[in-house]
Each structure stands twice: as C-alpha cells, then as structure tokens.
Design brief:
It contains seven helices and 15 strands. It is of the alpha+beta class.
C-alpha cells in the first residue's frame, strides 16, 4: 500500500486509508520565513484527518489497475492491508508510510501524524531551493553598533532594495514559467503505478482539496444502488457529481472530448479543473446519481463534491 499511497499523493489532494483516516495535500505559496531569514519556495504540505475514514475507491482503483484485477478483488486487498495497519497502530508501534510520513497512536488512543521532511512528494517543486537574504537596516548613528547587522547609507538603501526586489521577481518569473510548462505536460500516464498502453487514456481519478476544513463531502459506497443515469448537469445546484480532476482546463476538455458526452461540464475551483457529469440540490440526490448502476458503469470513480 505504501507505494500506492506515495504515488497517489503526487497527483491527488486526498488519499483515504479506509477505517484509519485520510492524508491530505495542500499547496503552500512561496513566502518569507523570519526564523531562517529566507524566502521559501512553493511546496505541497501534508496533513492527516482521522475523521475521513470512509473509502472513496481511490486506493482500490490503483491496486486494480496495477494488478489487472476487478475493483471488488482490489477492495478486499485494500481492506486486508488497512486491517494490518490498524493492528500495528493498536500495538503502539509506529506505522511508516514512506514518503507519505508516519502514523502513531498516543496514550489516549488518538492517531498522531508526522509529515515527511523530504519534498519528493511534490516533484514539480522539489528542484526549487530556498533563497537566503542578508539582514539590513538604515544607518543610524544614535543606535548601538552590531557587528551582525550590515549598516548601509540612507541614500543607497532604496537602490539596494530595488535590486533585491528585481532579483526576487526574476526568480518568481522563472519558477512560474517552469510550473506552467510542467502543468502543460500530459497527466495521462499518472493514473496508476502500471504504465498505460495508449496515449488516449485519460485520468479519471477523483481529487479532494487538501484543506480539511473545506466544505467537501466524499461519497462512494461499496455496493451501488440501482438508479437511472442523470440528465444534463446544472451549475446552480449545490452538489456536483465529479468524474475527473485535472490540473488545467486543456486536460479537462480533452477528457470531455474523449467521452463524447454533451452533459459533461468543467468546474474550476482551488486551482484545479473538475469535470462533472451531473448535479443535484441535495446530497442524497447527488449520492443516488453517483451510485446508480448505469452511472457506475461509465464512471466507476465518481464522487460527490459540495460547491
């Protein structure tokens, strides 16, 4: 399971360990850290939510593709693996998840999460290094001299400040250009650990935003109900049935074209483009659509998102 968890976190915002909790990934913008006097590059931070324990089928789908087995058989494999994980935690032993971090249970029985120190879980940002800066202040003859501070002439302060700002702007522009190029790369090979056979296949995996406080509901039962397929989606409804999540609109549109379905639409939010196939005013109605037999046949990894 560790290999699947590490891989899925690179291209998804949420990986649920059924019965244990969910590992969430959210983007952190470049910012200045006063403690180390450096500008830190953008990266993806990991956190853990013990309340999200109901499976969304993401791990099972990855196992099914890797082993070329059915979803039902893969679900049983995931259930057995998570049972072993819980036994490790219940024995007060740490559960090592590799690049996804580590889980431990404290004396009160609460699961504690320790994120990894490496940035390998964010390959698009791992090459960016922190930029250190020199502490400066205005020359003041009335203040005490400090050999650890670089004193500059007041007339040269703004010139140096502009140079620092220009240098930082160049770094940001280079990082933005590289990120755009990376985002344009095809995500078609990112669906599982096993390579895809054609270039026309498109990732249909769901993604959940990393912020655990965001109003979002993940629903995908083990045994779907028999309902009729939904009609054309309406954006004014509160709940949407998501069938794919992509990094840009071009990938989302390519997915829609491959399905040849006029009822598919694009919902852009939080830096991702999600393809929805239906919407409903209530969670129960959206749940019924996502679990209908005809809908599951077309989109087995569908999930419900609150707008």
């Amino acid at each position: 399971m560790t290999n699947h968890i590490e891989y899925l976190l690179q291209c998804h915002d949420c990986v649920i360990l059924p019965g244990i909790g969910a590992i969430l990934a959210h983007s952190v913008s470049a910012h200045y850290n006063d403690e180390v006097d450096s500008w830190l590059p953008p990266h993806r931070a990991l956190s853990f939510n013990s309340e999200l324990t109901r499976t969304d089928g993401l791990l099972a789908a990855s196992v099914a593709r890797r082993r070329k087995i059915s979803i039902a058989a893969a679900t049983q494999i995931v259930a057995s693996a998570t049972d072993r994980m819980r036994n490790i935690l219940d024995s007060n032993s740490p559960l090592d998840l590799g690049l996804a971090g580590r889980l431990e249970r404290n004396a009160d029985g609460k699961i504690l999460y320790f994120p990894p120190k490496t940035s390998l879980i964010s390959p698009q940002f791992m090459w960016l290094a922190a930029t250190s800066t020199t502490k400066i202040c205005i020359d003041n003859h009335n203040s005490d001299y400090d050999e650890n501070v670089v004193y500059i002439n007041h007339t040269k302060f703004w010139r140096r400040a502009l140079r620092v700002a220009a240098s930082f702007a160049i770094i940001v522009l280079i990082g933005w250009a590289v990120k755009v190029n990376l985002s344009e790369a095809s995500m078609q090979q990112f669906a599982s650990l096993w390579p895809m056979t054609t270039n026309d296949q498109v990732n249909e995996e769901p993604a959940v935003e990393g912020d655990a406080t965001a109003p979002m509901t993940l629903i995908l039962p083990a045994q779907p109900q028999e309902e009729e397929d939904a009609s054309a989606p309406l954006l004014n409804e509160k709940f949407c049935v998501i069938v794919g999540s992509f990094v840009n609109e071009a990938e989302a549109q390519r997915f829609i074209n491959s399905k040849n379905n006029q009822n598919l639409g694009i919902l852009s939010a939080d830096g991702r483009c999600r393809v929805y196939a239906a919407s409903a005013p209530t969670e129960a109605e959206a749940y019924a659509i996502a679990t209908s037999a005809s809908f599951v046949d077309k989109y087995p990894s569908a999930w419900v998102c609150r707008r």
